[in-house]
Amino acid sequence: MDPGFRLDGRYRMERRVGRRGPAQVWRAHDELLARRVAVALVGVRRSQRALRRRLRDSARAAAALAHPNIVTTYDYGEAEGSGGDSLTYVVTEYLAGESLAARLERGLPCAQEAAAVCAQVADALAAVHTCGVVHGDLRPAQVFLTEDGVKLLGLGVTGDVRDEEAGQGDDVLAFGVILAACLPDAPPADGLPAELAGLAGRCRASQPGERPSAAEVARVLAAQGHVRARGTGGPRGDVTSTPAGAMTPRGQVTSDHALGPGEQSIRRSKTDQQAKPMFHRTRDAIEAPLTVVFTALALARHLQN
């Protein structure tokens, strides 16, 4: 596929911005609604009916999650691919910013900013869980920082109904790892950093039943980060307020940052114990198109299984 290609006569491909295995992510222009979008696409054999159905169902589930901290899914379809394959694609909003993984490479945020960001992640996760969905691949690269707030990515890893309670407990465990990554290895004995460290510890309890729900975590962090949480989460719900302060991230974003190399340097970044602002206002906003229902990584995993 080359720039200028029109997918289903509507989406004009502008630039490929990411690839992993057979999956590609493109920046594109929606010629019908005159807006920039992100398109993730992959060739799927027509004989793989179960896989195509699963991807379609995942797209439908993600499209039902109308939440300010979950990237919006616009469209899903199948076009004629090469060699008779079906070119399966999903269209989402196009985001400008950087991943939390990229942000943590530059150093730790202050405690209040960490609470504000993680509160939005927990609120989005609570909305996902309220719908009976499990994320299944929560990590810093799936948390995207934009001028308007935090966006949760990567919901395409889920889609099959497995042990819902255990899966949600695993999500909370993964969230605890993210929260801990935003804190110094040895936080002060009292104050907000200590409270956040305690909450991260609860989320990482060895027994899933001992971990708090995502909704409870969202409420606690919202109070600590001065963010108003939605509360129950779910589809087509109310809009949460964004945390006080600037929300424009800073730093260069690579085209494949959504696929997760940034986690490798989280521990290395903690050697800088001086808290740095999570967000900086800057003129040169970095554009990073990412997907939600089966990201490139999710699509590759499905095809490899």
Radius of gyration: 19 Å
Work out the helicity level: 25-40%
Return the domain count: 2
CATH hierarchy, class of the largest domain: Mainly Alpha
Order of helices and strands: EEEEHEEEHHEEHHHHH
Profile the largest sheet.
Answer: 6 strands, antiparallel
List descriptors.
305 residues, alpha+beta, Phosphorylase Kinase, domain 1, Transferase(Phosphotransferase), domain 1, 6-stranded antiparallel β-sheet, 3-stranded antiparallel β-sheet, disordered C terminus
Q: What does this entry look like structurally?
A:
The chain has 305 residues and is α+β, with helices and mostly antiparallel strands. The chain folds into 2 domains: 102 residues, Phosphorylase Kinase, domain 1 (2-Layer Sandwich), CATH 3.30.200.20; 172 residues, Transferase(Phosphotransferase) domain 1 (Transferase(Phosphotransferase), domain 1), CATH 1.10.510. The protein contains 8 helices and 9 strands. Strands 1-2-3-4-6-5 form a 6-stranded antiparallel sheet. It has a 3-stranded antiparallel sheet with strand order 7-8-9. Strand 8 and strand 9 form a beta hairpin. Helix 3 packs antiparallel against helix 4, helix 3 runs antiparallel to helix 6 and helix 4 runs antiparallel to helix 5. The radius of gyration is 19 Å and the shape is elongated. The C terminus is likely disordered.
Describe what is shown at a glance:
This protein has 305 residues and is of the alpha+beta class. It has helices at 49-63, 100-104, 111-130, 164-181, 192-203, 214-225, 266-269, 296-304; strands at residues 6-7, 11-20, 23-30, 35-44, 73-80, 86-93, 97-99, 143-146, 149-152.
